[in-house]
Amino acid sequence: MISFKDRMLVLACLMMGGLLFGQKSQTVPSMMNLQKAIEIALANNYDLKMAENTLKQAQNNNSVGNAGLLPSVSLSGGSDYSKADSESETTYTGLLESEGATSMGYNGSARIDYTLFDGLGNQYTYKKLKQTDERQNILFQQQLENTILSVVQTYYGVCSAQQNLKLAKESMKISKERYQKVVDRKAYGQSNTLEVLNAEVDMNSDSTQILNTEQNYLMAVKDLNVVLGLPVDSDYAVDEKLQFNNDFSEAQIVGLALVKNSSLLSQLKTEEITELDMKITKAGKYPTIAAYGQYAYSKTDYENSTSIYSQSNGFSTGLSLSLNVFNGRQQHIREQNAQLNLLSEQERTRQIKAALERDAANAYTDYSYKRRIVELQERSMEQAKLNFEQTKEMFKLGNATSIEFRTAQENMLNVTNQYNDARYNAKVAEYNLLRISGQLTR
């Protein structure tokens, strides 16, 4: 589907982006090409950096310990001090009095707790963490695609504006030559003041056109700088060359979209996660069995007392079982809602598939028609250039009027601008085909 050249371009950009990712600044080349623009965007783009942070969070969460599958170990310790007067009397010892009796106690324990069974809830939780991690990888891939497509759209917008500016300057050069020709003719009595004034008005109109086109170009460059994460005032020329791929078919695009499209893959993961949520909820109706083991030590020293010290240490273990018998049908309601959530996600998956099939077909149609428009505009441009050259020669010989010359000039300029815009629009449509069919970064 995707040509070897374009596949290698994207892969090279992704590899370079990985090396550059996280750097604060990039060297701005004097001549920017699409590959370099994508590399810089992958290193600097703000949305991509935030998506990477979210991906790392999902990777951190994906662990057996975070799912409750590992035991918990705790240590505790403490000490206490007391000082008190005491008095006691028994039939055997008689009256016993103690003044200022003090005691100092120490204690410590180590305890391990482990859930043996909770209706498999912790195992389903671990599976959910894995699926969430995988879904976040897909979302990161989707952000990569969006970033690359945004770069492509903005980059070719700059290319179009740059070419339009060149054409406006060329048109100005032609108008100056015409103005000089009319002035020379007037000097020999072959023209009149009206023709000179018309030529001057057209020359001023071209000057205005240059200013408008230059403004559009500068604004387009600033838009690209924002997408690339560069300083807004960064300045460079862009490489305008492009090449089309010709190996697309609607059936292949639609088929790949239903298998590889990142939005659909993300939704399928969401459906799997929702199903695991339902299983986790159902686990709440089963008993929870937990075990613990503990070693404890304590010692108390006495002063001014009949006892000198007391000490204890030893190991204890046990099992516990808990079962929710009735909680006002809350468990039943949670299960019902979890089931409804799953049904909703399944409906959403079907909805996304239907919309994706339509969007993929429309994207192919859009690309096909844009390619046909390019071919038509190319023929129109060639005809407009030929018409202008012939009119120019006739004007030199005095066989064409200034109005005819200007009409041919404007027609050539407009058609050439339309051809350039059509080429770049078609190339953006081609990249959109790659995105929707899941081929842009694969």
TrEMBL record:
Listed SUPFAM superfamilies: Outer membrane efflux proteins (OEP) (SSF56954)
Q: Membrane-spanning regions, if any?
A: none
Domain of life, per the record? Answer: Bacteria
Gene Ontology terms, MF aspect: efflux transmembrane transporter activity; porin activity
Q: Which InterPro entries match?
A: OMP_efflux, TolC-like
Q: Where in the cell is it found?
A: Cell outer membrane
Does Transport show up as a keyword for this record?
A: yes
Which keywords does the record carry? Cell outer membrane, Membrane, Transmembrane, Transmembrane beta strand, Transport
Family, per entry: Belongs to the outer membrane factor (OMF) (TC 1.B.17) family.
Q: Would you tell me the protein name for this molecule?
A: Outer membrane channel protein
The protein's organism comes out as Saccharicrinis fermentans DSM 9555 = JCM 21142
Its taxonomic path starts at:
Bacteria, Pseudomonadati, Bacteroidota, Bacteroidia, Marinilabiliales
